[in-house]
Amino acid sequence: MIAPKMDFGGRSSSTAATAAGDCRPPAAYFHSSCVRSIALLSLTSLALAMLCFITLRADAQIVRPVGNAPGVYVDPDRVLKRRQIDEREELTAMRSRVRAAQDAGKSEKLAYVSLPKSFAAARVAVDTHTPIPDEIRYLGGLTQIKFIFLYPESNDLMIAGPFEPVDVIDDLHAVGKKTGRPVLRLEDLTVAMRVVSHEGRGAFGCRLDPDPAAPARIRDTMLAMTGAARAERVKAVARATGPQKVSFFGKVPDDTHFALVMIGADYELKRYGLGLAQSTVPDLGTIVDNSRAAVNMIWYELAYDAMLVSPEGDAYGLRGPRLRVQAGGFDWDAKGATPKAFEFAKKMSRSMETLAMNQPFIAELQNLADQSVLAALIHRDRLDEKVGWDASWLRREAGENDAGFPMARMTVPKTADALANYTNGSIAAGGVVLSPAKIIAASPEKDVKGAMRSAKLQGLQLRREHADATVLSPLEATHPK
C-alpha cells in the first residue's frame, strides 16, 4: 500500500492575543529593542510552509509549478496564506503513515549510496543538459542516514540507511511508497555542504520577524474588542498583527528546498504549541498558560545520542531522535519559559519519532539534520580527502567560475499572513537552530564490539560485485547499538 502523499500544508500559531512571529537565531543576531517592544503585548502566532512556484537556472532541471499544495498558497503579492483543510482526512492520513512506518520497521533493509559516484553522475547530467536520474536526485530512496562508511581503497564514501521505492509527486514532494516518509535529496546535501563550509562551527536556521508597529495595533484592538465574541476577537487580532517578515541566518540560501523545509517544520511546531495541529500523540498539551501572560519561545535543535565510531575511524553510526524541542524566552534563554512551555517541549521531544510519522515536515527536518551532521563530519575530518574524492564542484555556487551543482531556485513568500487562536496574553515564537558542529564535537562512543563491522563489510562486498553502481543492493538492516 502506498501511504498518503506528503502534505506541505501551512501552519499557524496563536497567543492570548498571541503571535509567534519571531524565528530568531542565537543572541549574536538578536536585537533587544525588538524584544522590548514585543514583550509588552501578545501577538498572533504564525508560520510558513511551502511556496507555489519555482524558477531554475538554465542548466538545472525544469520544475513544474505547484498551485494546489494542500493547506497553503502564495498570492500574487507573495504573501503566504493558509487554506482550510479537512481535519478528519488529515488525521486519517497521519494514522495511515504511522501504521505503514511500523510495518516497514519490522523488515527494514539498508541501501548504500556512494557520494562520489552520485555527484559524478549528477555532473554528467548537468554537463549534457539531461535530467538528473531520480535514483541520484533522491539518494537511492534513503529515508535516514544510519551509517557513514569510508572505503579509501576504492575512493568511495558511502552512506547507508533504510530506503524505499520513491514516489515523486512533483519536484517539491518525493516520498517513500511504503510509508509516505520524505526521502533524502541530493540538493539538500549540497546546501548543507555549502552552509557548513561557510559557517564552520556556527549555527544556521530561520526566523520570522513581526512588524514593529504590530504591538500597538494589537493593544488597541484588544481594548476595543473586549466585549466581542471570541471568533471576532480572533479575526481582529490576526488583522492587527499583520504580515510577518521571512528571513534566514547562517548563510542558508533563502530560495531553496532546504530553507523551506525549515520554515515549514517551524510552522508545524507553532501549530502544535498552540493546540492547532492534528496528532496521533495524546495529551501533547500547549505552551499557553492561561493563568498569566508570558513570553515563550519554542524551537527545534539537533539531538543525537553519542556517535558510534570505529576504532579505525572509517565508520560512523548516527543514533538518536535527530531533533528535540526546546523552550525559553525570546532571547533563547532556557530559563525564560513558563513551566507549561517546558513540559510541552519535553513531550514533543519524547514523541519526536511518532510526530515525524504524523507530519512530513518534521520527518524532512530530521533528514536535514542527518545531512547537516554528515556535511559537518566531511568538513571537519576531511572525509572527502581521505577517500580521494574531489568535492569542490558541489561546494561551488552560482557566480563562481565553473559553477557547481545547480540548485532549484524557488520563489518564496516575502511575508506570511498571521493566524490567531485567541487564548490569554502569552507571546509565542519559534525557530530552527541547527548546530551540527556541536553534535560531532561531543565525545563519541568507540565501536569496540564491532556493531558496524558486518554492515561495512557488506558494503565492501557489494562494491566489489558492482564496481560502477551508485546505489548498491540492500540487505537486512544492522542497527548500531
Briefly characterize the structure:
With 481 residues, this protein is of the alpha+beta class.
Key features of this structure:
481 residues, alpha+beta, eight-stranded mixed β-sheet, seven-stranded mixed β-sheet, 35% helix, 19% strand, disordered N terminus
* Residue runs with pLDDT of under 50 for 5 or more positions: 1-71, 476-481
Helix content: 25-40%
Beta-strand level of the residues, as a percent range?
Answer: 15-25%
Largest sheet: 8 strands, mixed
What is the count of helical runs?
Answer: 15
**Arithmetic mean of pLDDT:** 78
- SSE-based structural type: alpha+beta
Radius of gyration: 22 Å
How far apart are the termini?
31 Å
Number of strand segments: 19
Shape verdict: globular
Q: Largest sheet, order of strands side by side?
A: 2-3-16-10-9-17-11-14
- Kindly give the count of domains: 1
Describe this entry's structure for a reader.
The chain has 481 residues and is α+β, with helices and mostly antiparallel strands. The chain has one domain (27-476). Helices cover 35% and strands 19% of the residues. Strands 2-3-16-10-9-17-11-14 form an eight-stranded mixed β-sheet. The chain has a seven-stranded mixed β-sheet with strand order 18-12-13-5-6-4-19. Strands 1-15 form a two-stranded antiparallel ribbon. Helix 8 (257-273) packs across helix 11. It starts with 31 loop residues before the first helix and ends in a 5-residue tail after the last strand. Mean pLDDT is 78; it is low at 1-71 and 476-481.
